[in-house]
Design goal:
single chain; 469 residues; alpha/beta; 28% helix; 26% strand; globular
Length: 469
């Protein structure tokens, strides 16, 4: 039976303790534990945490993004830089991500791409994830004979612009793309001390669930997986490696669904015991979602994803309905400068709020929205405290959190965001061991402080600077 003993670790409540890990669980806590474990680690007073959890991710898209060209801020901030980024000599598909019209002044189309890259097929994803833009060669590969063009393929004056909106399933079917390996994503999360993720892609179905289970069993994605997605996920058994999450409703202000059908979808999910998670990045989407939830009746565990724009009166409705919020504090750094340039100043206080949710008693968790945001939770915590943009400007300082509150965003129980996880006897040994005690760590919320990560008692990241005793 494998056994690890972590000596002299600090817990969140300030206690110093030894932690015995046996058979994948926390088997014993206390000072001066004795035994002959397989491995002994001296924490030397440094903090030990339950493994962090990223509460809003898109793993397959993140894996694909690692092999894609960055096409937007902060890496690319103008049209000349975008042209340079796309100048890669090759013959196959060129896949770009993170594009935003602030780079070029207006949303590009296939003509713009043809002028830059005429010799190979190109597709570039908008930062929101809602739109792909193809050049002519890419469009020709997309429009396969015998398959009708999808409704989301934009035409102006009878001509295709190369812009494809909200057609990811069509894209996968037409281009016959397969699910990628998750190994690079799993390794990155392990380095950050992340031991669990909530996968939030609305198209997640049984086939996606099977791929996640496969990647978990081969240790490519060792993290625990809570899988949100389609209603159909409720219909069949899932591999034990994948836990069933909420039904994801992905709203778009320009194309909101029928109100009655949304209410019906919420009631159907609740009838199967599943909460819902609603994508809300505009005030209109939030108003629509809250009205639908009020009509359908809220279930414990229902949650708002992003809550990007939340005026006071809607925040009060969220609290009244007993909803939780999964926010992205990292967007203040990654997109804050664009928000300050594009959004009227009177609306700035409503953007990516944090402290106000906690004050109102609303359960709040942190999610990266990777690949649309950085998957580094420590960077998100730091921004939650500073509220600084990439260029050093402040956005909504009244929404800043303390370091303790910022840390708790990623310690929330994924199945109950109102509960903060702690290291207790008998739980699975999902642990993040840091390099310093909390009194020092709180001054520098940095991923460099992660010393070791354990999932189910197994060491998945080893930055330990001493040999096992």
């Amino acid at each position: 039976m494998s056994e690890t003993l972590i000596r002299n670790a600090e817990l969140l409540d300030g206690r110093l303790t030894d932690i015995r890990v046996r058979a994948g669980r926390i088997d014993e806590l206390g000072a001066g534990l004795t035994a002959n474990p397989d491995v002994t680690i001296d924490a030397a007073g440094a903090l030990a945490l339950p493994g962090l959890h990223d509460h809003h991710v898109h793993i397959a898209a993140t894996a694909a993004a690692l092999n894609s060209v960055k096409c937007g801020p902060p890496e690319v901030e103008n049209a000349a830089a975008l042209a340079t980024a796309l100048a890669i000599p090759d013959e196959g598909w060129l896949r770009g991500i993170g594009y935003h019209e602030s780079v070029t002044g207006a949303l590009i189309d296939r003509s713009w791409l043809d002028n830059i890259v005429p010799q190979r097929p190109v597709r570039i994803q908008h930062r929101t994830g809602r739109c792909w833009i193809f050049n002519t060669m890419g469009l020709e590969k997309l429009l396969s004979p015998g398959i009708p063009p999808p409704p989301g393929l934009e035409r102006i004056d009878g001509q295709y612009t190369g812009r494809l909106f909200d057609e990811d399933e069509y894209l996968r079917h037409t281009l016959r793309t397969s699910m990628p390996s998750f190994a690079a994503v799993g390794a990155a999360y392990a380095r950050f001390g992340v031991t669990g993720v909530t996968e939030m892609s609305p198209a997640n179905d049984a086939a996606v669930a099977a791929h996640f289970a496969q990647e978990h069993h081969r240790n490519a994605l060792p993290q625990r997986i809570l899988l949100a997605g389609k209603q159909e996920l409720s219909d069949g058994p899932l591999d034990p490696a994948v836990a069933l999450g909420p039904v994801k409703l992905h709203l778009h202000e320009a194309h909101l669904p029928e109100f009655d059908s949304t209410v019906t979808a919420i009631r159907l999910a609740h009838g199967k015991g599943r909460p819902i998670a609603v994508h809300c990045v505009t005030e209109v989407e939030l108003v629509f979602s809250l009205a639908a939830l009020r009509e359908a009746g809220a279930l414990r565990g229902d949650r708002i994803e992003h809550a990007s724009v939340t005026p006071d009166h809607l925040l009060a409705e969220i609290a009244e309905l007993g909803l939780a919020v999964a926010a992205q504090p990292n967007f203040v750094a990654e997109r804050g400068d664009a928000y300050l340039a594009e959004i009227p100043e009177k609306e700035w206080p409503d953007l990516y709020r944090l402290s106000a949710f906690l004050t109102a008693g609303i359960p709040l968790a942190g999610g990266s929205d990777t690949p649309f945001g950085s998957l580094n939770p420590w960077a998100a915590m730091q921004v939650a405290v500073t509220r600084r943009t990439a260029h050093g400007r402040h956005l909504g300082t009244e929404e800043a959190l303390t370091p303790e509150q910022a840390l708790r965003l990623f310690l929330a129980d994924p199945t109950d965001l109102s509960r903060t996880r702690s290291i207790t006897l008998g739980i699975p040994a999902d642990l993040c061991l840091l390099t310093q005690p909390w009194r020092e760590l709180r001054k520098d919320l940095s991923a460099a402080q992660v010393r070791a990560t354990f999932i189910n008692g197994r060491l998945v990241h080893n930055g330990i600077d001493q040999p096992p005793a």
